[in-house]
Amino acid sequence: MLPISRKYTDKINDEAVAAIVKFCGIALRGADSQWVSMTDDAEVQRVVKGFCAKKLDLDAKTAEAAVRAVGEKMKADKTKHRVTVYYLVAEHTGKLGKLA
Q1: Model pTM?
Q2: Which of 29, 51, 61, 88 is 20 to 30 A distant from 23 in Cα terms?
């Protein structure tokens, strides 16, 4: 299981992490697909239309705002692991319980 960095959150819900890993599936095995590029609008929209809409039931406006907020939170990191981004978006929107 991939750990979520404690520098972003105090508590980590292991069930939510497992649900995210399951949702991502083989995408986490790809050298490029395991990362989220916050500077690529198409990539941000994939997160919004994929994970945020399908798993968190968020509307596009709320989802994009959450993804952008997480991108800002992780700004210091050059690489943003997909599981960490998804977890932080769920936490930011209060939807972690929906995953666990």
Answers
A1: 0.92
A2: 61
CATH assignment of the domain containing 78? 1.10.238.120
Total domains in the chain come to 1
Chain segment 11-64, per-residue pLDDT in tens: 899 999 999 999 999 888 988 899 999 999 999 999 999 999 999 999 999 999
**Segment 81-93, tens digit of pLDDT:** 999 999 999 999 9
User: Which residue range is the domain that position 84 belongs to?
Assistant: 14-99
Burial tier of 79 (Cβ tally within 10 Å: 0-12, 13-18, 19+): exposed
